Structure to design on (390 residues):
DNA sequence: CGAAAATAATAAATATTGTTCATAATTAAA
DNA sequence: TTTAATTATGAACAATATTTATTATTTTCG
């Protein structure tokens, strides 16, 4: 029956919504079965009627955050001029999303994904998100003759690692002390890679 | 009394040793008060006579791992020729240590340090370890005229971020699938930065 | 040496976790 | 309306970190 599917999906949504709010607000360590269920308006046991376990629920959140992030970037860079400038803007928007929700960054890159059941699926989703977002622009630059295919591949990798590294340092609240310094650092790194 | 200090330090050492073994072998998730105390040959409650809490113990482990890592790098690069080559070798040895003990890398960069009490102290220790290890060589290159002070600072930063990023990807078992590919990637990135 | 005092080790207890299961409540079917 | 299926839930279980009161040990000193 279709109704069943709709209703089930709706209730799953309540749990997911509650978990997402907690993840964004307080981070993974504050997400417990009891608290999520409370916020969703159900008993903790009910959660297990809709999700295999807590990781299953969190995995759904990861997927939604990933989509949110992608959407966020696309909206913010809609008008950017194609090529290197657009890549820079994509990266800035990408970083901006994680800066707005540090808990999501922690969930994506820091907190052990090892526990999340479908490792390959989740990791693939997360680890290639920046690549996917920039892919068109890299192709554009190669087609344009601005970069060779090898140069593009090399820069793509460098960008991926550098941005992740920068975020790891900043989100752990150490490296650049202020947001101002952080954006300056980011700009510098982007110029270094893309010219 | 001095005897007291020595004995206390000795028993603390048993707990630290047990925790270190667990961290290296199985990672943070497998480290529990009960298991550590068991391995140390004491009751779990005894641990609290020597450490404020579990984080306090783990912080001690972090300090020891940090020292171990430093020592490991220094031994491995003792004979390297000064300058860029030595920086490359330092980075390789540094990465090599974490590759040998993935649990330690996770502890350092991935698992939420937020819980570790003395955030600033711990983070400073960890986040500047690579910088400190390479510092002499950067100075050498500047004194040598091979690099300007600004170039050195910029490359130092880039190196720090890139290496962290590469490790985050590799240790989460996704990016390069094999160790062979990983070292190749590392070499490429090092050449890109240091020429 | 032996009693008193200080120190150290521990078991029991508390408060959280995630997860399972039998049962109660609700909804759908006949 | 009675029966059957589904859904929600509280109780229970195992494992977690930590605290507290009590026991065991060691040190001190008369």
């Amino acid at each position: 029956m279709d109704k069943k599917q709709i209703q089930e999906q709706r209730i799953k949504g309540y749990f997911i919504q509650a978990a997402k709010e907690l993840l964004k607000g307080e981070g993974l360590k504050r997400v417990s079965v009891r608290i999520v269920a409370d916020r969703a308006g159900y008993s903790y046991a009910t959660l297990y009627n809709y999700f295999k376990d807590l990781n299953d629920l969190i995995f759904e959140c990861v997927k939604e955050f990933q989509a949110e992030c992608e959407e966020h970037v696309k909206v913010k860079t809609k008008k950017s001029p194609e090529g290197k400038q657009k890549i820079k803007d994509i990266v800035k928007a990408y970083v901006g999303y994680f800066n707005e929700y540090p808990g999501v960054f922690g969930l994506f890159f820091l907190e052990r994904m090892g526990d999340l059941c479908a490792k390959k699926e989740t990791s693939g989703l997360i680890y290639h998100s920046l690549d996917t977002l920039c892919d068109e622009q890299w192709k554009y630059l190669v087609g344009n003759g601005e970069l060779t295919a090898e140069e593009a591949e090399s820069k793509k990798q460098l960008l991926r690692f550098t941005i992740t590294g920068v975020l790891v340092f900043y989100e752990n609240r150490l490296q650049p002390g202020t947001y101002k310094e952080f954006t300056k650092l980011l700009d510098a790194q982007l110029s270094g890679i893309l010219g």
